[in-house]
Amino acid sequence: MIVEYIRYRVPDADGFEDAYRRAVVPLGNSPECLTYELSRCVDEPECYILRIEWTSAEGHLEGFRKSAHFQEFFAEIKPFVSHIEEMRHYEQVITKTEPTLFEWAGGAEALERLTATFYDLVRKDDLVGPLFAGMDPGHPRYVAMWLGEVFGGPAAYTRERGGHTHMVSKHLGKGITEQQRRRWVSLLMDAADEVGLPSDAEFRAAFAGYVEWGTRLALYFSGPNARAPKEEPVPRWGWGVAPPYKP
Ligand code: HEM
């Protein structure tokens, strides 16, 4: 991730904010733009700073700049380009840090306890048990590695099992039903209580958010209309709110 700062001094700000209100639509739709913010200086109201987080400098220059999103964006802000005083990329050096969900949960050992207990419950369950009749004995550990990576821990699943595509492909053709998905979620929550994962509201909400999202994807990929999984990095899940779905 890289941050771009664009500093403006706009002597006549008439139309400037409105132009940006329109320009941020294609900007926000660009896959390379993670977030943006336009701020006006309180002490010198003719000064503005536009801060954009890009996936990378290449993502900005090779992706966005060469896309139709840029054409639309630029058409709106063109009258103000001569008022730009600085436009540069910055690398973050120090930021406020929070523990990852992986650390908060208790690390790899806690997640392994969770999945060992969970798959014991799964095996005995009349609704989801049959799906796991031929389960690889390493399965609970692989799922713990997956969860660890998703929650901000080491990229062990990607290294040892082949990452996102491998995980998704394991669900293809399994024909998971909504009732089975619900039971899977419910047993995982039981296991989380049983092994004593942190029970604070913030952690459990983030944990449940991922589990809800992940099981719905597993259901989709197990079904008859699933597209072949794309080569993508393992998703990373944090404390915050998930951004809206982009088709
Ligand atoms: C957040 C939700 C889910 C996660 C994180 C998850 C994780 C995984 C992972 C990592 C694998 C591949 C393990 C390997 O590397 O071999 C896998 C396989 C599998 N998953 Fe899921 N899964 C989820 C949801 C579900 C649901 C809802 C079901 C069914 C109710 C399900 C059924 C299966 C089955 C049957 C396999 C193949 C197991 C085997 O034969 O070894 N999964 N899952």
UniProtKB/TrEMBL annotation:
<dbReference type="InterPro" id="IPR001486">
    <property type="entry name" value="Hemoglobin_trunc"/>
</dbReference>
<dbReference type="InterPro" id="IPR012292">
    <property type="entry name" value="Globin/Proto"/>
</dbReference>
<dbReference type="InterPro" id="IPR009050">
    <property type="entry name" value="Globin-like_sf"/>
</dbReference>
<dbReference type="InterPro" id="IPR007138">
    <property type="entry name" value="ABM_dom"/>
</dbReference>
<dbReference type="Pfam" id="PF03992">
    <property type="entry name" value="ABM"/>
</dbReference>
<keyword id="KW-0479">Metal-binding</keyword>
<protein>
    <recommendedName>
        <fullName>ABM domain-containing protein</fullName>
    </recommendedName>
</protein>
<keyword id="KW-0813">Transport</keyword>
<feature type="domain" description="ABM">
    <location>
        <begin position="1"/>
        <end position="90"/>
    </location>
</feature>
<dbReference type="Pfam" id="PF01152">
    <property type="entry name" value="Bac_globin"/>
</dbReference>
<keyword id="KW-0408">Iron</keyword>
<keyword id="KW-0349">Heme</keyword>
<dbReference type="InterPro" id="IPR011008">
    <property type="entry name" value="Dimeric_a/b-barrel"/>
</dbReference>
